[in-house]
Specification:
The longest helix is centred in the first third of the chain and has 13 residues, at 11-23. Strands 1, 2, 3, 4, 5 and 6 form a six-stranded antiparallel beta sheet that branches. The radius of gyration is 27 Å and the shape is flat. The chain contains four helices and six strands. It has one domain (4-118). A hairpin with a 6-residue loop joins β5 and β6. The protein has 148 residues and is of the alpha+beta class.
Length: 148
């Protein structure tokens, strides 16, 4: 895969949400709401993991990669398998990837991470500033006393 940068990891958000579910503050109906499109994307484009679902604990989680980018045009927003990402990154300059974990059993889903994929832009040269001479401390002003 080409350079992966600007990685945003949502593991702290995941832990906080699971803590609320386990304590009863949030019901499982609120977090197990995967759409049929997401479930189909998990079935056909997802990557199975060895991690059990934190809600039902029966099924293993599936990671789905959604890609976005200006150069993708009609294919922006589509789910792609992880194997397709390097070839896609080679065709476009910049690609935003969102990774969602899905349980196909209980419909748990959560954004796990997002990152930018593609060629890293070359750093623009910094403009050269003229060097200014360093001034010494200003001479103290003579204070004039006012006589009455």
């Amino acid at each position: 895969m080409r350079t992966r940068r600007r990685l945003v990891d949502y593991s702290l958000r995941r832990r906080a949400l699971l803590r609320e579910v386990y304590s009863g503050l949030v019901s499982t109906w609120e977090v197990c709401d995967a759409s049929p499109y997401l479930k189909n994307a998990a079935k056909y484009h997802g990557e199975r993991t060895d991690v059990r679902c934190p809600i039902c604990r029966r099924e293993n989680l599936t990671l789905v990669h959604y890609v976005y980018g200006d150069e993708l045009r009609q294919s922006a927003g589509q789910a792609r398998s992880r194997a397709e990402l390097p070839a896609l990154a080679a065709r476009v300059a910049e690609l935003q990837v969102y990774v969602v974990e899905v349980c196909r059993g209980c419909d748990w889903n959560l954004l796990v991470e997002q990152f930018l994929l593609g060629a890293e832009p070359a750093a623009a040269p910094r403009p050269v500033r003229p060097v200014r001479p360093v001034r010494s401390a200003r001479p103290a002003r003579e204070e004039r006393s006012v006589r009455a």
